[in-house]
Amino acid sequence: MSGEDFNIQVSFRHQIRFTRGAFRADNALVSELLETRGRSKVLVFIEEGLRDFFPKLEGEIQDYFSDLSGLRLTAVEWLAGGEEAKRDDRVYHAAMGAIERYHIDRHSYVFVIGGGAFLDVIGFAAATGHRGVRLVRFPTTTLSQDDSGVGVKNGINAFGKKNFIGAFAVPYAVVNDFRFLHTQPEDTRRAGLIEAVKVALVRDGEFFNWMEANVLKLRALDEATLEEAVERSALHHARHIAEGGDPFEVGSSRPLDYGHWAAHKLEQLTDFKLSHGEAVSVGVALDTLYAAKVGLLEASEGERVLQVIENLELPVWHEALELRDAEGRRRVFNGLEEFREHLGGELTVLLLKETGVGVDVHEIDERVWEACAEELKERALSTV
Ligand SMILES: NC(=O)c1ccc[n+]([C@@H]2O[C@H](COP(=O)([O-])OP(=O)(O)OC[C@H]3O[C@@H](n4cnc5c(N)ncnc54)[C@H](O)[C@@H]3O)[C@@H](O)[C@H]2O)c1
Ligand SMILES: [Zn+2]
């Protein structure tokens, strides 16, 4: 027998920026971020749903590039977004077709402008075309700016499972342009804040205190407060990815997926009628109450979390939690098995021991968890 081990180290730069009006003539952010040697090509994908809100966007982008000598805009492609775009591989193939048609190579750039679902599917095309071309993300929803846009995951759903097909890839840059935040429906804008609550709960108790103190301003979608929450949350997510020691999730612990095992299952059980933000809200409420019930978290701390969620007008319960299989087991519990399988290894669910401090556990007592679901059902129905 013979052989040798080699260590392969690859280092990525994760560039996160915040701005307003990235394609305004006087905004140099984008041109300064990109390498402009040799007139690199830029292919822009915009989510179709943004057309009505930003009818001048394509023209602005064209004008922006016409003034730049080092970059060449090849095309602006409008494609369908939202969760529908992740359901099958049609949008993925449409994007891949454009990457091929416009001869986008590894020194060219793909820009993607849209919500989290659109970023996931176009990001997957960019991660796999030529085995990876440079991707610049412009997230346009609260959720995609405060969380998914800075993530390193791309993908689409398959076999009825969220994100079953995908690739890890660090984007070339992420430009959070606050101009996009203010056209979303109010409930969607608010729902995206759950990822900020989540990251505060698992990483930074002080940030949670700040959200709690500012919850009424956040509920009212006060511009400056919303933008501060988005920025702090995005940087926390990025810092966790860069410094948490497991950017590509080789281990079994996934703190940024707090509350997500139930959330992903609820999205699937509702045929994605429940949005990711709302589903995460229910998942976070349940896992938080559960931690209090099993004695990991002070009951009063759990109550603070539930109140922040409710004050943001987000759900703590959903009727899909009631769905049962032929044996009478709640179908949401299949989410635990799917969560484990997605990662491999031992089941690892993060729970809270304080606001801002998580702890990994390896089993969930279904009876206790069910009692939490019942309690939150009563709470939800009593406030209707
Ligand atoms: N890759 C990751 O790390 C990661 C992390 C968290 C979530 N996600 C994924 O992100 C997706 C959810 O993202 P989302 O919450 O942004 O929802 P979304 O992308 O489904 O967008 C929701 C709706 O908002 C519309 N929209 C987008 N921007 C708008 C704007 N500026 N004004 C008005 N309408 C706008 C879209 O057309 C869509 O109809 C899920 O698929 C989730 O799994 C991925
Ligand atoms: Zn999420």
**Principal-axes shape call:** globular
What bound compounds does this protein have? nicotinamide-adenine-dinucleotide, zinc ion
What's the CATH first level of the largest domain?
Mainly Alpha
Instruction: Please identify the structural class as seen in this structure.
Output: alpha/beta
- Number of H- or I-type helical stretches: 16
Instruction: Spell out the CATH superfamily of the largest domain.
Output: Dehydroquinate synthase-like - alpha domain
Q: How many runs of DSSP E, i.e. beta strands? A: 10
Question: What gyration radius follows from the Cα positions, in whole Å?
Answer: 21 Å
Tally of individual domains: 2
Strand content: 15-25%
How would you describe this protein?
It is built from 16 helices and 10 strands. It has 384 residues and is α/β, with parallel strands linked by helices. The protein folds into 2 domains: 16-183, Rossmann fold (3-Layer(aba) Sandwich); 186-382, Dehydroquinate synthase-like - alpha domain (Dehydroquinate synthase-like, alpha domain), CATH 1.20.1090. Strands 1-8-5-4-2-3 form a 6-stranded parallel sheet, sandwiched between helices. A two-stranded antiparallel ribbon has the order 6-7. A two-stranded antiparallel sheet has the order 9-10. Helix 8 packs across helix 11 (223-243), helix 13 runs antiparallel to helix 14 and helix 13 crosses helix 16. The longest helix is centred in the middle third of the chain and has 21 residues, at 223-243. The chain is globular and about 60 Å long. The model has no long low-confidence stretch (mean pLDDT 95). Residues 147, 195, 260, 276, 280 line the site of zinc ion (ZN).
